[in-house]
Amino acid sequence: MDYFGLLCTFLLVALATIFISWGKRKRKSQGKHKLPPGTMGWPYIGETLQFYSEDPNAFFISRQKRYGEIFKTHILGCPCVMLAGPEAARFVLVSRAELFKPTYPKSKERMIGPWGLFFHDGGYHLRVRKLIQAHMTPETLRGLVADIERAVISTLEAAVGKDQLVIFHAMKKLSFDVGILAIFGGHLEERYRVELRKNYSILDKGYNSFPTLIPGTLYHKAMHARKRLRGILNEIMNARRQEGRPHNDLLGALMDSKIDEPLTDDQIADNIIGVLFAAQDTTASVMTWIFKFLHDNPKHLESLKAEQMAIFEANECGKQPLTWAQTRRMTTTHKFILESLRMASVISFAFREAVADVEYKGYLIPKGWKVMPLFRNIHQNAEFFQEPRSFDPWRFEVAPKPNTFLPFGNGVHSCPGNELAKLEMFSLIHHLVTRYRWEIVGSKEGEVEYSPFPVPKNGLPAKMWRVSNGSGKAGE
Ligand code: HEM
User: Residue of the nearest CA to atom 30 in ligand 1?
Assistant: First the structure.
């Protein structure tokens, strides 16, 4: 045999060996269970191109139609199993949560800070979560109503008459201010607030950028802003230690932690940046949708106005502040908020990784694969929400079936800030519909952008007016 023949034989034998051992490994890992239906797309790139060229929600919905409630795909270099049913979401997030760990790209972890609770499971996660939850009880939130109201009024007043008002930007400022209130209470020195806002906004701009430390790139700038944020937080913590008095806010709770050993300053700082991150874009996106849904649904706007005007008048046309008890009685507004959360589904899915081979309904979820319960698909399923595409707050007269309404997730990692977010929305809607009117300019029906959460195109440009006697029509 000549040299070429030998080479060919060698290559054939090598390929056959690789193929057989791959087949054996695959069979061993699959055991008696098969992988879920679906396609893994092209080698290496999988279905990443389709994921990015389509609207991500259209991507998930088309595959759910083709394959059913559990299907596999391969995006961003990871094999994934998507779960579009309520039972499956419960399996991953609640009943067998120990088999699925939260997973984020390392670049994001570095930016928020590796001690952020969302990156952890087990004892440390539980310890930090308890401290945050203990600060989100009705008793604590009650103490924030007046400060949140001031932040809402200041945001809306700043929006009045602006030529180029972008609702999403205004709402980001509001949700940042409310995050600062929850973390530092109402008495943070102005210079700290300014520096925190400035540096957090640089970090925010770099969060979804390509992770490279080349100077001048958004990611590089964001990592530097993170360092400065860490420095500011250090200063605030040191000042508080010197002052020596207890503070009834989230930073105070994290600093005075008596559960097991105290948290280190790195752990506290990472969680403060983490909470700011978790609180800002999520709440701002939903509030932007609230403007849109109010504008597009005059009938619902009228029923909200009726509820809010009664409170406005009871408060001597806004001379008295809104109270916690009043926010608890806003039943029509509450249904409107729930329907806005369902329709907007700003967190469309959760992101987990299987820590072992897992069997679910006869399918194998291999160890190391990403697992994504698809909240939006569940919220848009006609089996659980009749005519899911129509905006109908009255559907919440009846409680949704278990595990079908998951805007704040479920289980050990579910959102501890949900009541704070809703309180902010109650206060916003109260002032918006009683004191202002607005008009949406230059955003077409159905146009959505991802930043990274879905918001109306261009952040919903609008014009806003004040209605001096509180009786004008909002959203006309
Ligand atoms: C409308 C606004 C909000 C929405 C839709 C939302 C949604 C969510 C969801 C779905 C999760 C679970 C993610 C998962 O399972 O992987 C989550 C977690 C979290 N949220 Fe929110 N959130 C909102 C506002 C807030 C606010 C205002 C705070 C401030 C305290 C906050 C703090 C957190 C934290 C710290 C976590 C991580 C919890 C853990 O890992 O144990 N969120 N949020």
Answer: 417
Ligand 1: atom nearest CA of 128 is 41
* Higher per-residue confidence, 75 vs 264: 264
Spatial separation of the C-alpha atoms in residues 443 and 270, rounded to whole Å: 37
Binding site membership of 178 for ligand 1 (Cβ less than 6 Å): no
d(CA 26, ligand 1 centre) in Å: 37
Q: What is the pLDDT of residues 287-303, one digit of tens each?
A: 999 999 999 999 999 99
Interatomic CA distance for residues 94 and 350, integer angstroms: 12
Rounded CA separation 375/84 (Å): 7
CB contact set of 404 (below 8 Å; sequence gap of 6+): 86, 378, 379, 381, 384, 385
Sheet strand arrangement including 165-166:
165-166, 461-466, 436-440
Pocket test for ligand 1, best of 136, 415, 422, 425 (most atoms within 8 A of CB): 415
Taking the model in full, what pTM does it have? Answer: 0.91
Q: Is 421 in the pocket of ligand 1 (CB under 6 A)?
A: yes
Question: Using CA atoms, how far apart are residues 131 and 250, in angstroms rounded to an integer?
Answer: 8
Would the CB of 409 count as within 6 Å of ligand 1?
yes
Buried b (16+ CB within 10 A) or exposed e, 220-242: bbbbbbbebbbebbeebbeebee
The protein residue with its alpha carbon nearest to ligand 1, atom 17, reads 415
Q: Is 317 annotated as a binding residue?
A: no
Element containing residue 272 per DSSP (H, E): helix 265-296
Number of Cβ within 10 Å of residue 398's Cβ equals 7
* Residue 65 near residue 320, CB atoms below 8 Å: no
DSSP string for residues in 222-264: HHHHHHHHHHHHHHHHHHHHHH-----SHHHHHHT--SSSPPP
- Helix, strand, or coil here: 395? helix
Percentage of the residues of the chain whose pLDDT score is greater than 90: 76
* Whole-angstrom distance, CA of residue 390 vs CA of residue 332: 17
